[in-house]
Specification:
Mean pLDDT: 94
Shape: globular
Largest sheet: 10 strands, mixed
Amino acid sequence: MRKITLAVWMLLHTAVFMAQTHKSDSAPISALHAKPKLVVGIVVDQMRYDYLTRFYDRFGEEGFKRMIHEGFTCKNHHFNYVPTYTGPGHASVFTGTTPQMHGIISNNWYDKFSKQVIYCASDPTVQAVGSDSEAERMSPRRMKTTTFADQNRLHTQLKGKSIGIAIKDRGAILPAGHAANAAYWFRGKDEGKWITSTYYMQELPTWVQQFNASKQAASYLKEWNTLYDIETYTESGADENIYEKGFKGKKKAIFPYDLAALKDQNAGYDIIKSSAYGNSLTADFAIAALAGEQLGKDAITDVLTVSFSSTDYVGHNFGVNSKEIEDTYLRLDQDLARLFKALDTEVGIGNYTVFLTADHGGVHVPAYLKKVKIPAGYFNRDVLTQRIKEYVAKTFKVEGLIENVSNEQVFFDYAVLAANDIQAEVLEKTIAHFVLKQEAVDKVYTRTQLESTEYTSGIATLIQKGYNQKRSGDVVIVLNPATIVYATKGSTHGSGLNYDTHAPLIFFGKGIRKGSTTQRTTIPDIAPTMAALLGITFPNGATGSVLPFVLAQ
C-alpha cells in the first residue's frame, strides 16, 4: 500500500513539475519584452548630474522626483568619449555607440574631402517645410548608424511611429533616426514657428499648423522673473556678478528680463530659446504631439524623443552657477510634470516608459574658478593655429601643410605632403612635440597613435571612442582641466572631465524597476537597454551594454 501511495505521489509530483516547467517554457513569449505603447526619450541639454541634487529640495513631487521615486536612477552615469557636444551627445544616446561608429564627431567639423566645414544635421538635398529659410535644410543623413527608434520602426514593419521634438534641429533630428515619421524644431528669428524638412514630408500636418497659428510662441515674449522669491534661490551665486553675458539691450544680467522689449536686439523669437520659457514651449509642443500624432494609441510601440534645449542656451549665457540656471531647472521640473500628466491622460499610467538623460554637462565659468583658486583658464585657438602654421613652415620649409585647425584637431593637406615627400607620421610627431609645449595644453595624441594602439583607460580611451578614422583630424589636442575656448563670461562644455561627462540617467514607467545604483554606466548603454525592453534588434552600431538591473523582467 505504501509503495502504491509513494508511486502515486511521485507521479503527481512529476506531473506538477512538468506542468510548471511547461508553463515556464511558454512564459517567455509574453515576458521577453514589456511592450509599452509609447517610449519617451528625454534629453536635457547641458544637464550636469549635480543639478538633480542641488535643486532637489525645491522640485515638486510630479517632475524629477516622480521619476526618481517611481523609477530607477543611475547615479554614476558618464559619457565614455569626447568631445562632449550636443550633436554627438544626442546621436550617442539613441544609437548606443560613440562618434567612432556613428560619425557625428562634433556639431560642426571640417570635411577633408569637400574642403569645407559642415554641420552635423545639414542636408543640401532637402528643403525646409514651414519656413522659406535656406538655413533650415536638415536631415539625419550624416549619422552613419541606426537609433533604437529606427530599429523599432523596422521591427514593427513601420507601424510604430518615431517623432523627434526639440528647439534645436540636431536635438530633434538625430534621436528620431533615419526612418522617423517626423522631426520638428523651432525656427526663431522673425518667424516663431515649429518646422521640419522635405526629408520627412512636403507639408506640415494640420496639428502643427494649428499650433503655430495659436501664437503660443508669442505668448512667451513676456517678463522672465524668478518662479519663487529670488532670496530663496540659495543653490546659486549672486544674481549680479561679473561672470554672465546677459541679453543685448539690458545693461546688467539680473532678473527680471522683459523679453518682449529685448527681442528686437536679440534675434526676435530666438530670445525665447535663451530663457526658461524655451523649455515650456517645447513641453507645449510635445504635449500637442501626443494627440496630433496619435502616439501610444494602440498596442504597437511608438517612440517620442524630446530634447529640452534652453537649459544649454541659458548655461552658455549665464554659467552653471547662475540664478538663471536655478530658475530654469525649477521651471523645467514643472514642465516635466505637465508632460507626465499628459502622458497619464493620453497614453495611460503603466502604458509608457520614459528615460531622461543629458547630452553633456558643463564647466563652471573659469574666471570664477580662478577667483576661488581652482585651476582654470581660457585658450585662444586662433593664436595656436597661427603658431603651428608658422612653426611647421619654418621646420619643413613648406607652406600649406596645415589645412585646418578646429575642434582642437589639426588636419593635414595630404596633397602638399605628397608633393614635398613628407611623411604624415613625421609631421604628426613634429606638431605634437611643439603643441605639448604650449602652456594651456595638457596632452596631445596623433592619428598614428589612435589607429595603432587600443587604449583602455584614461582620457586616451575617451578620445579614441570619439575619434572617427574618416572624419577626424591628424593630431588631437587636450587642454588643461577647466580650460575652455570661449568668452570670459558664460560657460561651455566639450571635455572628457567629470563636469562634462557626469550626466543624469533616470528610467521610469512600464518594465522599469524601482531603485538606484552607483555602478558606473555609460551613455551608449541606454539604447541597448531600451531595445532589450522592447524585444527588438539593437541599433546596428551599438557598442553599449544592457543594464539588467534597470529592467523589471
